[in-house]
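Re: your question about GNAT family N-acetyltransferase

S., sorry for the slow reply, the queue was backed up all week. Below is exactly what I fed in.
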Amino acid sequence: MITLKGDTIYLRALEPEDLDFIHKIENNQDIWEISNTITPYSKFLIKQYLEQAHKDIFEVKQLRLVICDFDDVAIGMIDLFDFDFKNRRAGVGILINDSVNRQKGYGKEALQLLTSYCKLDLDLHQLYCNISEDNEHSLKLFKNQGFEIIGLKKDWNYINGSYKNEYLLQSILNVH
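Result:
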């Protein structure tokens, strides 16, 4: 699908071969804070998830894509969640897995590709995301791609014994 191919990366559907990659991501406690995860996932559960990954976004209300470089190496994931067809909106989340691949523009390009796909192919009106107020890199990424902070959720997430605020950001794609 040419829509999901950029200059340095492309986005692809989940494959059964992604089991170990997803298992590593989902069980990395360093990123549980951004995914609101509190328990590990077994390979069995992830395998079951992958077996259902072919289902249509209109049925399961989410779409998870793997971010790959042109050597076909999986470097991250980008998700649409809470897909709301009636109101033509969805949440978006992104993760570049290995810190050596961060700050190289992969997240920016993946977000641009997904945003274009949402606008042109899914005919969405808006995307939104939730970002911890101390996640400066993600805030910069989304703000630089046209997302605006529209609210602050105070004491929203309980992390390591204290509460953190979380911003709600929104991007209007199709103005009618």
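Strands lie at 9-13, 63-69, 74-84, 89-96, 126-132, 148-159, 162-172. The chain has six helices and seven strands.

Happy to talk it through on Thursday.
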